[in-house]
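Module 6 notes. Inverse folding takes a fixed backbone as the condition and produces residue identities as the prediction. Think of it as a translation problem where the source language is geometry and the target language is the twenty amino acids. Below is one complete input and output pair. Work through it position by position during the lab.
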C-alpha cells in the first residue's frame, strides 16, 4: 500500500466498541486486534521469534490442537515464561525465557507503534509539510501531551499544517482548547466521512 493510500485510510470511520449496536463485522481498533505476528519491540520479538517460526511449548506445556493457552498463561503477567519454538521447517528448535506482559502494556506498545506508523505515513505523503498528532482521550493529560507535541511541531519550519487524528478516542471535554490552542490562527478545516457524525480529524494551519 502506498503512502497516499495509507493517508486516505485516515478517513476511515471510527470502529464500533463493545457495547455499541454492532453491524455484522465491525473494524477492530487497529492497535488492540490480536496479531498473528510478533509485536515489534515486544517480548517475543526481543526473544528472537521471527515471522514463520512455530511455537512448540509454553511454560513447559506442549501446544496441541486443544491446548487451553489462556489456562497455561494464567497469572504469568510480569513473570518469566519459557517458550520453545522452531523454524517453520522444524529445524533450529530452541527454548528462550521471556517476560509475559499484561494486555494493557501490550496494547500500549501496539498503540505507540500504530501512532508512529500514522505519523510516518502523513510525513511521507506530504513530503514533510504535514505533522500528525493522535488524541487518545479528551482529557487533561491528553491535552497537556498535545500542547507539548504542538510546541515541538511549531519549531519545525517545514511543517505547514497539522493532522489532528481523533479516531478511537475515548471521549471527554477538551474540544475547545484542543481545536483552538493559544497562539494558533482560528482557521480549521474538518475532514469528514459521510457515515460518521462529527469530525474525525482536523487540519490546522501552522503556528505563526
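Target side of the pair, the amino acids:
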Amino acid at each position: 500500500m502506498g503512502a497516499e493510500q495509507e493517508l486516505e485510510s485516515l478517513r476511515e470511520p471510527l470502529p464500533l466498541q463493545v457495547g455499541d449496536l454492532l453491524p455484522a463485522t465491525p473494524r477492530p481498533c487497529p492497535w488492540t486486534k490480536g496479531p498473528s505476528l510478533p509485536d515489534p519491540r515486544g517480548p517475543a520479538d526481543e526473544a528472537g521469534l521471527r515471522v514463520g517460526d512455530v511455537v512448540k511449548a509454553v511454560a513447559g506445556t506442549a501446544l496441541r490442537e486443544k491446548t487451553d493457552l489462556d489456562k497455561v498463561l494464567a497469572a504469568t503477567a510480569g513473570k518469566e515464561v519459557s517458550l520453545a519454538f522452531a523454524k517453520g521447517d522444524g529445524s533450529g528448535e530452541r527454548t528462550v525465557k521471556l517476560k509475559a506482559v499484561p494486555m494493557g502494556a501490550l496494547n500500549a506498545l501496539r498503540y505507540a507503534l500504530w501512532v508512529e506508523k500514522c505519523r510516518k505515513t502523513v510525513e511521507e505523503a506530504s513530503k514533510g509539510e504535514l505533522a500528525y498528532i493522535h488524541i487518545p482521550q479528551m482529557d487533561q493529560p491528553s491535552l497537556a501531551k498535545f500542547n507539548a507535541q504542538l510546541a515541538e511541531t511549531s519549531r519545525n519550519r517545514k511543517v505547514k499544517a497539522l493532522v489532528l487524528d481523533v479516531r478511537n478516542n475515548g471521549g471527554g471535554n477538551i474540544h475547545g482548547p484542543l481545536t483552538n490552542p493559544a497562539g494558533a490562527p482560528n482557521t480549521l478545516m474538518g475532514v469528514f466521512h459521510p457515515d460518521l457524525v462529527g469530525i474525525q480529524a482536523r487540519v490546522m494551519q501552522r503556528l505563526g
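Reference fact for the lab report: Residues 42 and 106 are 7 Å apart (CA to CA).
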